[in-house]
Specification:
The protein is an alpha/beta fold. It is built from 16 helices and 10 strands. Helix content is 35%, strand content 14%. The strands form 2 sheets. An 8-stranded mixed beta sheet has the order 1-2-4-3-5-6-9-10, with helices on both faces. Strands 7-8 form a two-stranded antiparallel ribbon.
Length: 384
């Protein structure tokens, strides 16, 4: 990965700048910043998901800065112009585990001279990092907003097993069951964990730009087949109701999965929430570095390799003020059955509301930024 300049004024909105900060948990972090002109402002930290970068917050940062916040949005470990991470599939997977990603977030705050954040805001996989930040360091991350991905709490430790040992796994796995369906399927997170997934997308036959266009389109409210509803259980028959960008056809790559849903040139030209110029920022970054950095996060999750250290927090709740925001057309809020309700009733003790925004899918802060900004500003105003 060749060293590059930060994102510049040619692609960033007025009042937002890109810069590099060295020495953050072994990284040289590319950070977008707004509201830097006035010292002493409270900080809001924004954490993006996959396949995004800090640029996904471009429509949020000016609104937060305008009411007096110092706003920081890093390219997280594995993404964009941040360097110092291992892009090798056989490299250091442990550096991408959730507690180390939370350590990255703490490092960003500290580097900018903040001992606390007024709020940490996470979207998609960034919501998982934001949740762990708030769970582990509530003294630092004093409020939390999650977008598009519910947090159901830490993994449990086996309980009451001294005289009644917990049963081991019985029967076929969920993956065997998905593969055995009449229409054989596979779960996208386990596909993302395979050695081939990076090349499948980085070297997609349609090219990175068109792959991302189709992927962003199919997970947005623009794709009219996104009509989500709660699933009853983590079973193959229930999961098979998810769109194929979540539960894929067994023998298709992700690039092949989304290709048939590539929007027409007329639709692309009319798409105001993600113009071709804006998409080119994403495709330029992923075309340069590939997808493996982000895919390492999925490998940490699906392998279960780092669950042990997360189990240290079994039973602990998030006790800072919290809010959840998502698109009403986002299947992501239902992809793990029961997670949304568990977040609302158990995992977060001060969850003030779940807000589902009309005419928005998975990319809620890009598709409907005015509605998202209104909810963020309202939430932050109650914390001051």
């Amino acid at each position: 990965m060749n060293e590059m300049a930060p994102l510049g004024a040619d692609v960033l909105p007025a009042g937002v700048r890109g810069r590099f900060v060295d020495g953050i948990n072994g990284l040289r972090v590319h950070v977008l910043e707004a509201g830097w002109e006035t010292p002493g402002r409270p900080c809001v930290l924004l954490l993006h998901g996959f396949p995004e970068i800090a640029y996904s917050w471009r429509k949020v940062m000016p609104a937060l800065a305008a009411v007096g916040y110092h706003v920081l949005a890093p390219d997280q470990r594995g993404y964009g112009r941040t360097t110092g991470w291992d892009a090798n599939y056989d490299g250091d997977l442990g550096s991408f585990r959730l507690l180390n990603l939370a350590r990255d977030a703490l490092g960003v705050l500290s580097a900018f001279g903040h001992r606390s954040a007024a709020a940490v805001v996470g979207h998609d996989f960034g919501a998982s990092v934001a949740a762990w930040c708030a769970l582990v360091r509530p003294d630092v991350f004093r409020a939390m907003v999650l977008m598009s991905a519910p947090f159901a709490g830490p993994p449990a430790v086996p309980f009451g097993t001294a005289d009644s040992p917990a049963p081991g796994p019985a029967g076929p796995s969920i993956h065997d069951d998905l593969a055995a369906l009449d229409r054989p399927r596979k779960h996208y997170q386990w596909y993302y964990s395979t050695r081939d997934a990076n090349a499948d997308m980085w070297r997609a036959p349609q090219g990175v730009h068109d792959f991302l266009r189709a992927y962003f389109h199919q997970k947005s409210a623009d794709w009219t087949d996104n009509k989500p509803f709660p699933l009853k259980a983590w079973t193959a028959s229930e999961l098979a109701q998810l769109p194929t960008y979540y539960v894929m056809d067994r023998d298709r790559t992700m690039a092949e999965t989304v290709a048939p849903e590539m929007p027409s040139p007329e639709h692309v030209a009319a798409c105001r929430w993600l113009t071709e110029t804006e998409l080119a920022v994403y495709s330029g970054e992923y075309g340069r570095v590939g997808f493996q950095g982000g895919l390492q996060w999925y490998r940490c999750r699906t392998s279960g390799r780092f669950n042990g250290e997360l189990e240290l927090f079994a039973g602990r709740t998030i006790d800072v003020p919290s809010r959840f925001i998502a698109g009403a057309s986002d299947w992501g809020i239902h992809q793990t059955p029961g997670a949304l309700e568990k977040m609302r009733t158990q995992a977060c003790t001060r969850m003030d509301g779940v807000h589902l925004i009309d005419s928005a899918g998975h990319w809620v802060q890009q598709e409907q930024p005015d509605a998202v900004n209104g909810l963020l500003l309202d939430f932050l105003a109650t914390q001051r």
